[in-house]
Design goal:
Arc Repressor Mutant, subunit A, 174 residues, 59% helix, 6 helices, 3 strands
């Protein structure tokens, strides 16, 4: 049974976050098959590897910030990439607690093999747009990302999600 929202109220399909998610989810399977099927790397591993190659030697925290991931996910992914031999941990000679991360020659080769394919898929994704529209899209996405970051920093929704309680906090309505 479908119902129509009251006049003037937006529908889910009109909301930018939903549309961005839909655009991502429609193209995501293609990227997944490319990364995991052809190159044996998860999307998260690809992101960490690309950030490590493009950013040079950096700490785990710097790598997490560059990849826009939390430290535990970055640490797990970093461990997997080290096991595959694509990244290596470098210990500081003055302070053994300080660990830096660097791409190996094999990791660089994996990056260089995958990057042109990822670029090609991204080009295909926007092929129906003019170069001016692609530039506008990049600008719009940058502005949306900045606004989203400010919204998070401003803590505009104070409630915290509880992953231990089934993925979300259960709201109780009176």
């Amino acid at each position: 049974m479908s119902t129509i929202p009251p006049s003037g109220q937006r529908r889910l399909a009109d909301m930018p976050m939903y549309r961005l998610y839909q655009a991502w989810s429609q193209s995501n399977p293609v990227f997944l098959r490319l990364c995991e099927g052809r190159f044996g790397i998860t999307r998260r591993e690809w992101r960490i590897l690309a950030c490590a190659v493009e950013g040079g030697i950096m700490s785990s925290a710097e790598l997490a910030a560059a990849a826009k991931l939390d430290l535990p996910r970055t640490s797990r992914t970093l461990g997997a990439l080290c096991e595959k031999g694509w990244l290596r941990r470098l210990h500081d000679s003055a302070d053994r607690r300080v660990v830096r991360v660097q791409a190996t020659a094999e990791g660089l080769a994996r990056y260089q093999g995958l990057l042109p394919e990822v670029s090609r898929l991204n080009d295909l994704l926007v092929q129906d747009l003019s170069s001016a529209e692609v530039a506008l899209l990049r600008d719009f996405l940058s502005r949306i990302e900045q606004r989203g970051r400010r919204m998070a920093e401003d803590n505009i929704v104070e409630e915290k999600a509880s992953r231990r309680e089934g993925g979300t906090r259960r709201a109780r309505y009176a």
